[in-house]
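User: Reviewer 2 asked us to show a designed sequence for the structure in our supplementary figure. I'm pasting the C-alpha cells here. Could you produce the per-position amino acids so we can include them in the response letter?
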C-alpha cells in the first residue's frame, strides 16, 4: 500500500493552534505527550510537562488532565507531581471511559524499584478525582518479559480492551549500566517496538508481544504507536519513529494500518509522514479524533530554540 490511501493528507504542524507551551524557551523544556478523549461535547486532554536534566525537578515532573468545550482552550482539572509516584520521571498518560461508568487513567512512569518504565491504572468517577495512591499495576518489565514498558494507548473493541505500549526489547546481554540513567530508551542498548496487551475485564491484561516492529531506515530504533482511528476497512495508526537513541526525544511521525488491531504495517517506509520545518523536525505523540467531518490532531512539536510545545490542528476529512 502507498501513502495516498490514507484519508488524510500530510499537514503543516506550524499551522496548528498552541494549546500548551513550555515553561521556558530553552532546550529540554517541553509541554506535550498529548492524549485526547471526546464525549458528550467535551474534550479531555492529558499532557505532560518536562524539564531538562539538572533542573529542579527534572525530566517528566508533572502530568495533568484538562477539559475543554471547544478542543482548543483547556482548563486543568487534575494533576500529579512525580514525587507522588516516587519516580524520577513520568511520560504519557491515557484517559479512557470505564465500562459501566467513570474513568480509568493509565499512567506510565519509571519504577523506583528497578529504574524500568512501567504502566499502572487508577480509577475515578470523574477525571478531577483521581488518587494515585490507589493505583494498581498493569504492565511491568517483569510481566511483559521486556526491559521496560510505557506510553499506553487504549482501545475498547467489544468486550476486549486493547492496550498498546512502547517497550524496550529484551536482549540476551545488556550493558551493566543500561538502566543507570533510569531511561533505557536514551542509551541505545536495545530497540523499542510497539507491543499489545489485551484484557476481557479491563483489569487483568495479558501481554501479546510485538504488533508493530521497528523498521529498517528512519524508524529502525523506535516505532511507538500513539493513536488508533477507525476508518473504512480497518484502522489507521500514527506512530513515532527514530533511527537511533540520539533521536530518542525528537521522533517524527509515521503512519501504519491494520485490519484487526493485532497486526500493523507501515504505509510508507521511505520516510516520516509529517516533519516539523524547524528545529529537529520532531512531531511526536500525535493523537487524533474524527468529529463532524474534521480530523482533530493533537501533537508535540519541536521548536528551533530546543523547547517543545503542544498544538492542535483541524484538517477536513477526505
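Assistant: Here is a per-position design you can include in the supplement:
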Amino acid at each position: 500500500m502507498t501513502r495516498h490511501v490514507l484519508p488524510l493528507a500530510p499537514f503543516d504542524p506550524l499551522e496548528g493552534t498552541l494549546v500548551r507551551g513550555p515553561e521556558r524557551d530553552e532546550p529540554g523544556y517541553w509541554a506535550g505527550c498529548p492524549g485526547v478523549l471526546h464525549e458528550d461535547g467535551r474534550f479531555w486532554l492529558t499532557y505532560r510537562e518536562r524539564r531538562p536534566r539538572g533542573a529542579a525537578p527534572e525530566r517528566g515532573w508533572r502530568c495533568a488532565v484538562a477539559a475543554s468545550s471547544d478542543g482548543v482552550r483547556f482548563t486543568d482539572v487534575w494533576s500529579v507531581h512525580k514525587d507522588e509516584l516516587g519516580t524520577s520521571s513520568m511520560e504519557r498518560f491515557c484517559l479512557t471511559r470505564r465500562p459501566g461508568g467513570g474513568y480509568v487513567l493509565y499512567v506510565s512512569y519509571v519504577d523506583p524499584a528497578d529504574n524500568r518504565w512501567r504502566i499502572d491504572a487508577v480509577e475515578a468517577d470523574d477525571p478531577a478525582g483521581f488518587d494515585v495512591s490507589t493505583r494498581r499495576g498493569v504492565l511491568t518489565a517483569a510481566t511483559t518479559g521486556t526491559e521496560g514498558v510505557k506510553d499506553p494507548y487504549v482501545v475498547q473493541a467489544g468486550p476486549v480492551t486493547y492496550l498498546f505500549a512502547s517497550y524496550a526489547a529484551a536482549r540476551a546481554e545488556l550493558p551493566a549500566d543500561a538502566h543507570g540513567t533510569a531511561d533505557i530508551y536514551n542509551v541505545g542498548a536495545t530497540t523499542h517496538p510497539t507491543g499489545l496487551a489485551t484484557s476481557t475485564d479491563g483489569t487483568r491484561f495479558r501481554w501479546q508481544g510485538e504488533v508493530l516492529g521497528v523498521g529498517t531506515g528512519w524508524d529502525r530504533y523506535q516505532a511507538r504507536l500513539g493513536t488508533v482511528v477507525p476508518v473504512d476497512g480497518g484502522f489507521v495508526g500514527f506512530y513515532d519513529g527514530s533511527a537511533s537513541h540520539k533521536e530518542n526525544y525528537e521522533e517524527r511521525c509515521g503512519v501504519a494500518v491494520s485490519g484487526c488491531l493485532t497486526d500493523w504495517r507501515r504505509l510508507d517506509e521511505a520516510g516520516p509522514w509529517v516533519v516539523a520545518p524547524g528545529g529537529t523536525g520532531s512531531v511526536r505523540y500525535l493523537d487524533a479524533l474524527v468529529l463532524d467531518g474534521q480530523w482533530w490532531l493533537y501533537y508535540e512539536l519541536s521548536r528551533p530554540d530546543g523547547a517543545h510545545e503542544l498544538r492542535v490542528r483541524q484538517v477536513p476529512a477526505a
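For the response letter, you might also mention the following. The mean pLDDT is 95. The two ends are 18 Å apart (CA to CA).
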